[in-house]
Target: Alkaline phytoceramidase
Amino acid sequence: MHLAADLPPHRGRGGPGAGPIALASALLRRENHRRRALACGAVLASALLLVATPRFRHTPALHLFADMRNLLGVPNTLNVLTAYPLLLAGVPGLVLCICGSGCFGVSLRWEALGWFLFYAGNVAAAFGSAYYHLKPDDDRLIWDRLPMMISSSSLLSILVIERVDERIGLSCLISLLSLILLSSACERVLDDMRLWVILNFVPCIAIPAMLFLFPPKYTHSRFWFLATGFYLLARFEGLADRKVYSVNRYFISGHSLEHLCFALVTFILTVMLSFRNIKIARDS
Model:
């Protein structure tokens, strides 16, 4: 008796390759659900933080930095001069971005746009920060903040494009740039800095989290960890401006070191882009 031959074929067994294909499809769906859950969780956490945080207003103390020395007739000399390494680190990367993806290891169109905005933000920050520190006040503050916010938001979006999905990363880039403009409007019109604070805080959490949660598409991913370490160090030095200044016996302030660390981040990422290659082939 050949009972097995009389049984109808199972619907889940479409052929010898159907099992692995179905498994891969299920894993892909699970991964997509995880990505959406992480994205929704991040958005929800940011919204809750915005609501729970008390209103931040402009105060004159905002423009009082630890090191306000006037050397060689230049007000706030070191805070002005340490902004220009951002120019030295940003211009080569910006030129190479303009030359095309052949100069850098960039395989996706919107990823190239993200890197262009990152380097353009650094170049603009060199001039904007120097302009602000020559005479710190509310009117000049936007020229210091806006370029660096564009740069950090572009960096976060680049990671999303590279490690999650190109379309999601592009949506992230557009959303963050829109929120940056909205935060500037809230700051100027409503005298409310909450959104600006959150937009500066989110990359400090999201970038390290993505480095650990999602696999890299390219080689030399260790440069991401090195650059992220200096990025977080820069943020810490900016917050601990006076403390850092007193610890090193009033040689250089935390804010000036913040400028130098941001320039180092740009240099490290430029080196990474110059040497990396595609590690994981992925359709986008």
In short: Residues 18-52 form the longest helix (35 residues). The two ends are 52 Å apart (CA to CA). Residues 66-275 form a domain with the Rhopdopsin 7-helix transmembrane proteins fold (CATH 1.20.1070). The chain has one domain: 66-275.
